[in-house]
Amino acid sequence: MKKPLCVINQKWVRGVPVPGHSNIRAKQPWESKWKSGCSNLDRGQAYLYSPITTGRRCCAREGHTPLPLLTRKKPLYVTLATSRALANTGGVKNLLLCLTLGITMLFTAEAQMSVEVTLPQNQFLPGENLVAAVRITNRSGQKLKLGAEEDWLRFDVESRDGSIIAKLSEPVVVGEFELDAMQVATKRVDLAPHFNMTQLGRYSITATVKIKAWDRELVSSPKSFDLIHGAKLWEQEFGVPHATETATGSPEVRKYILEQANYLKGQLRMYLRLTDSSGARTFRVFPIGQMVSFSRPEAQLDKSSNLHVLYANGPHSFSYTVFNPEGDLTARDIYEFTATRPRLRVNDEGQITVNGGARRVTASLESTATPPAVPAKSNP
């Protein structure tokens, strides 16, 4: 009788053949075929594919005998195989030995290194920048080199029901660096352009760091977030000015859309969405800022198709922002409600300024807007 074959990995890539068994491919454990038992596996073989995060029992032999229930926050994917069903005592001992070795190796690696994913907020609009920060802590007592390979840092996104979100492209984080003992490195990646996240709902992100020197991969705990709906407040089509005055032809038509989202239980935020003329293609989503519930934004376009937005962000304060046709923020100011309420005003040259109120000057907020002209006073 052949000795049991034990293959241990921290994470299987979906659809990749199991080593030594090309006819068996790694599957998601919450799929129906895995819930029903081992009927989809070869007869005479014994397999275990158990994500310890789920706390589910998986089959260990063709007789559908469940393994002891294991619980752990971080994922561990283990595959065990023997040439015969594990009905004899020696097979059971080898199975337990493989499990013990795999879990011991994982605990040792996690004690030396840790990987954590953080997000700047817990809710996003579809198309908004989703910058994930991966925090890597080195407690191994030795200097490590990371980032030399293109796939040294990988991301996976799953929906609430466990479905894998399709990748539009692979997020590539290039640049080799050294991480000394007891140091922390943080890498930030905008995942929005790389994953097909269009449906509203709850998602989770996991990051995998490959440590080439150890021939090992570390997987972070899932970080959850929600894609929420934004209510449309205002929209306006506009033509994108040509880069040069001598250029001819019809201009490209785009659309500015102001949206309001209920963020964190009653906290309202306003967003700018820049799309094509049909609204089907989104070029950019920019979070303008927090707004009060009774505020109705005042929006106007100048002669260069720049968008000027003025809205109440507090009981006695107004936020003034300017965006160019590419969706870039070019100016931001805060105006206080004084004897008069701040309002947008268009002059004869098509320039827009804020009329009324008093512009607040703060050290942390640098204005790039032109303040309204002060009328000259005649001497008596």
Protein architecture, described:
By secondary structure, this protein is mainly beta. The chain folds into 3 domains: 5-110, no CATH class; 119-227, Immunoglobulin-like, CATH 2.60.40; 231-242 and 250-359. It has 2 helices and 25 strands. A hairpin with a 5-residue loop joins β21 (317-323) and β22 (329-336). It is elongated, with a radius of gyration of 29 Å. 24% of the residues are buried.
Provide the helix percentage.
Answer: under 10%
Output the number of helix runs: 2
SSE arrangement, N to C: EEEHEHEEEEEEEEEEEEEEEEEEEEE
Q: Tell me the β content.
A: 35-45%
Tally the beta strands. 25
> In whole angstroms, how far apart are the ends?
113 Å
Q: Please summarize the sheet with the most strands.
A: 5 strands, mixed
What does the average pLDDT come to?
74
What count of structural domains?
3
Extract low-pLDDT stretches: 1-89, 103-109, 363-380
The 3D shape can be described as elongated
Class computed from helices, strands and strand pairing: mainly beta
Radius of gyration: 29 Å
Structure keywords:
single chain; 380 residues; mainly beta; Immunoglobulin-like; 3 domains; five-stranded mixed sheet; five-stranded antiparallel sheet; 2 helices; 25 strands; elongated; disordered N terminus; disordered C terminus
